[in-house]
């Protein structure tokens, strides 16, 4: 008699890996990785304040916010994508294509009130293309988004070429960099905080957020438990594309120039900030408070180096090093913890030698 494979047995159900439960924002901040990010941020700020002239001024604080605004915006949905075990490397190209379309439509005579919503929809469509290729075609997100990274950047050059459109209304360009009255902080910080609150509540306080951790821990187990894995990932890519387009609109107005090469290479800074904030590149682990700390840490280091007249090539090297460290360090710590015996760990005796603890891991290797 052939057993019914559609219904799991009791042993199979017990053996199925349980999805990791997401931690609250406060517990995330109190975790080892969250604490290390905040600690590194405080050390960087204090060191730069004493060693770099002009860093501690209020005016410079406003510049730091403007410098990291696009990174912070895109890092919010990118956090959710990486927690599910996927990645989107086309975000900078989406930003550049949005900027090119924005400039071309402005030259064609359309008002910005029409152009901006169109660009946001365009970004959502570009994100949907990534999502459909990943969820419907079943292709790996790394390969897909590397391809669309080149495709979207190429389309930006087809639309705008090497031209730069720089005659946007002063009311729009000035508004993008305007400060909150009585403070040196630009208004875009409010937009970042509002979106961070929305994504934070969605990730840490809803069933949808819990499903993201379950997908990242084991997508097959999540699918078995009734979670629509494909649809969830698709909407995350759509949201990432839309927010990348929003960052493209802000970038264009901030610098007052629409160019096809805007934000080239920004995707590495976004991924570095997310991983620095404690999100695992393998999925299933991470929290938004840590990511915001990672964004600020990256922005602080970049700003201090710029004030010290460090070249842009060196900034790229530093970003790459931080990206490598953010991937290698957590895995090294996890391996060290796995080798450390817990309470009551069995001990094996070597012939003629002392007792040797037998290391074990409480987590199944993926």
Automatic annotation (TrEMBL):
Q: Which residues cross the membrane?
A: 37-56, 63-83, 185-203, 234-253, 265-295, 315-334
Designated name of the protein: Autoinducer 2 import system permease protein LsrD
Record organism: Spinactinospora alkalitolerans
Question: InterPro entries under this entry?
Answer: ABC_transp_permease
Q: Where is this region: Disordered?
A: 338-366
The question of whether Ribonucleoprotein is a record keyword is answered with no
* One annotated Gene Ontology cellular component of this protein: plasma membrane
Q: Does the keyword NAD apply?
A: no
Query: Recorded GO terms, molecular function?
Result: transmembrane transporter activity
Q: Which spans of this chain does the record mark as coiled coil?
A: none
List, alphabetically, the CDD domains matched.
Answer: TM_PBP1_transp_AraH_like (cd06579)
The alphabetical list of record keywords is: Cell inner membrane, Cell membrane, Membrane, Transmembrane, Transmembrane helix, Transport
Subcellular location as annotated? Cell membrane
């Amino acid at each position: 008699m052939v057993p019914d494979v559609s219904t799991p047995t009791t042993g199979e159900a017990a053996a199925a890996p349980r999805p990791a439960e997401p931690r609250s924002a406060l517990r995330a901040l109190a975790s080892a990785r969250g604490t290390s990010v905040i600690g590194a941020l405080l050390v960087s700020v204090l060191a730069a304040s004493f060693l770099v002239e002009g860093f501690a001024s209020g005016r410079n604080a406003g510049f730091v916010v403007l410098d990291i605004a696009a990174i912070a915006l895109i890092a919010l949905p990118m956090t959710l994508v990486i927690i599910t075990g996927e990645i989107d490397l086309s975000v900078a190209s989406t930003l550049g294509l949005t900027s090119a379309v924005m400039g071309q439509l402005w030259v064609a005579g359309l008002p910005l009130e029409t152009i901006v919503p169109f660009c946001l929809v365009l970004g959502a469509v570009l994100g949907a293309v990534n999502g459909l290729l990943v969820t419907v075609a079943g292709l790996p997100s790394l390969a897909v988004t590397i391809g669309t990274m080149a495709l979207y950047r190429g389309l930006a050059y087809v639309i705008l070429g090497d031209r730069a459109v720089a005659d946007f209304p002063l009311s729009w360009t000035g508004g993008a960099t305007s400060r909150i009255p009585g403070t040196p902080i630009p208004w875009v910080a409010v937009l970042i905080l509002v979106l961070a609150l929305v994504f934070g509540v969605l990730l840490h306080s809803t069933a949808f957020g819990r499903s993201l951790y379950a997908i990242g821990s084991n997508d097959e187990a999540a699918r078995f438990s009734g979670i629509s894995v494909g649809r969830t990932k698709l909407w995350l890519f759509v949201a990432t594309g839309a927010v990348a387009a929003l960052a493209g609109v802000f970038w264009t107005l901030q610098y007052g120039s629409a160019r096809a090469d805007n934000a080239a290479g920004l995707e590495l800074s976004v991924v570095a900030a997310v991983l620095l904030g404690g999100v695992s590149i393998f999925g299933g682990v991470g929290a938004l408070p840590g990511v915001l700390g990672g964004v600020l840490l990256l922005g602080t280091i970049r700003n201090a180096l710029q004030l010290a007249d460090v070249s842009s090539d060196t900034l790229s090297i530093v970003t790459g090093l931080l990206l490598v460290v953010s991937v290698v360090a957590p895995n090294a710590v996890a391996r060290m913890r796995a080798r450390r015996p817990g309470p009551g760990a069995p001990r094996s005796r070597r012939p003629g030698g002392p007792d040797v603890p037998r290391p074990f891991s409480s987590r199944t290797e993926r």
